[in-house]
Design goal:
Elements: H1 6-17, H2 23-35, H3 39-56, H4 73-89, H5 94-113, H6 115-124, H7 135-148, E1 153-155, E2 158-159, H8 160-165
Antiparallel strand pairs: 1-2
Helix pairs in contact: 1-2, 2-3, 3-4, 4-5, 5-7
Length: 171
């Protein structure tokens, strides 16, 4: 799926026709059509990630590791809070809810992969842990979401089922 590129493709296509258009307004237009009433939250989430990447000096790409600097506990917690608001905003609308779940999956994956370290840091900083106490409960949520989205590979060379069979841990 190339959805991550869809907003940018939409904006670029519109700007090619009229360079005077406002890119942020175009982004919101796309998000409004795709995420409906949760568009503002998705816009905020994207902005959070963009600022975190910029501040960290990391390069954002398809091979960014789940422990990249921009994925700090603060960013992960703030991102999840925004996405939960988006989820609540579209509750009862199946397609929008599915789309929100789809964009929750990357953060859910980061939490799964870094479970022990993130949980320890949250505890040490006396922060609220918004995920279940048991990692297996969160893994079940992730696997259900991934299968609903027909995710077959969790990474290059590793199927979702193989990863799940190892408890959601790398090779």
């Amino acid at each position: 799926k190339m959805l991550a590129h869809a907003p940018w493709s939409f904006v670029l296509a519109k700007l090619l026709w009229n360079p005077a258009l406002d890119p942020q307004a175009l982004r919101l237009e796309f998000l409004g059509g795709y995420y409906g009433p949760a568009a503002g939250y998705v816009f905020d989430y994207m902005g959070l990630l963009e600022r975190a990447v910029q501040a960290s000096g990391d390069h954002l790409g398809c091979y960014s590791p789940p422990d990249a600097k921009f994925l700090s506990l603060d960013t992960v917690l703030r991102g999840w809070a925004i996405l939960k608001k988006a989820e609540n905003r579209v509750r009862g609308t199946l397609e929008y809810a599915r789309r929100i779940r789809s964009i929750q999956m990357p953060l859910a994956y980061v939490v799964l992969v870094r479970w022990d370290d993130l949980q320890k840091e949250a505890f040490e900083k006396n922060l609220v842990w918004p995920w279940p106490r048991a990692r297996n409960e969160w893994l079940d949520w992730f696997l259900q979401a991934a299968r609903a989205e027909k995710v077959g590979m969790i990474s290059e060379g590793q199927t979702l089922d193989d990863w799940a069979g190892k408890g959601g841990k790398s090779r």
